[in-house]
Each structure stands twice: as C-alpha cells, then as structure tokens.
Amino acid sequence: MGAEAAGVEAAGVVAAGVEAAGVEAAGAEAAGAEAAEPSSRVLATGRSQIYVSRGGDKLAFALEYFGVDPSERLAIDLGSNVGGFVDCLLRHGASRVWSVDTSYGTLDWGLRNDPRVSVHERTNALHFEPEQRPVDLITIDVGWTGQRRVLPRAIDWVRSGGCILSLVKPQYEAQRSELQKGKVRPEFLETVLQRVQEGVCDLGFPQFGWVESPLGGGKRNREFWLYLTPRTIG
Prior knowledge:
The protein is an alpha/beta fold. The radius of gyration is 16 Å and the shape is globular. The chain is built from seven helices and nine strands; from the N terminus they run ααβαβαββαβαββαββ.
C-alpha cells in the first residue's frame, strides 16, 4: 500500500514555497503520478462538489500525490468533524473506517449511519483505543493537538506496510510569539515547519513524505501533508 514517496531526504523544510537548502519534497515524481488539482472540485462558496466537506478534497489530493490506495483497507480517521476524510476514504473503497472526534453530533448523518463507519464521538484521539489493530491507514486532522503528541499514538496502531497521512496546520504547531491574528507570521513559517519535521525525525522517521496542500485552511492558513510508513523507521 502506498508509494515509495517516503524515500526522501527530510533534513529540513520540504514544503513547496518555503526556501530550504538541499532538501527535496516527496510526492508525485516519487509516486510516478501527477496529482489532480482539487480546487476545481470546490465551489466558490468553499464547499466540496463531491464530499461532505472540502476536507475530502484535501485528502483526495494526498492519496493521489503519495500513491495511497485505501480500497479494501481498514482505516482510522482522527479528528473527523463533519467527515470529509471519512467520506473520501469510503468513496475510495475503504472497507471500514473508525471515525474519532471530540465533538458530538457533528459527523454527517449519512456517514454515521453507514455500516462501514464506527463512530466514536466525544473521544480525544490521545485517549482512543481501536477495537481492532493494526490497521492499514490512519488519517489525521486534529487541529490543536500537535504532531508530536498524536503521531506516537497513530504509530502504535498502523501495521507494517501501512501508512499515516497527517494534515499539518502550522498555526497549531507555532508558539504564541510566532503568531499574528491566528496565522504564523511569514518570517517564522520555516522555523515552525522545521520544528515539526525535527519532531518527526525524533520519533524514528528520518525519511518521510511532505507536500503543501493546494487547498489551505481557514483565514488562508497554509497546510501541509505529512506521509509516514513504518517501513521508513530508522
């Protein structure tokens, strides 16, 4: 499952649009395919034309970019909210998805009644215990919970040969002094991203995939996809 996109040097910032010395981004070239531009699938209102939220379009881009095929796979989605990621996984053939979120009643009605979805509301990703493990794929969009805290949990649940796709939101990884009006100040973005990547290396992943999401978050915050597979553990 997945591409050899994780075989990339990751000693610094590898996000598109951020200057970094001697670092290459993992992605379509490594996967041997060009990812589709998701912006055409999102209406001017910001709503997805395909999924229950534009989060589905974000994940669809990452799946194609890194060559990940969810079909017939077991998946966990941490931070489901309305369920854009869950919807995307199901539409790409996932056999079962555990949907985890701290909110209650937020997940789309159709998804919560889908027999392939196991709903875990009012549940913090850091305290979640899967009914079945290991799983093949874990997707993450947990906002306030930093990557250093959530990734160790996900690593424990994913099988060898499976993968983790985590949406990194720099504003939630930054220190207060690095923020201005809810956004990372431009002069600190590289520092924040380097700190995230160093944290990933500290977890035992000297190599990993990284790409900027074509669809940013609210307030025009930039977002980045992190691709990990246990095969890349050093």
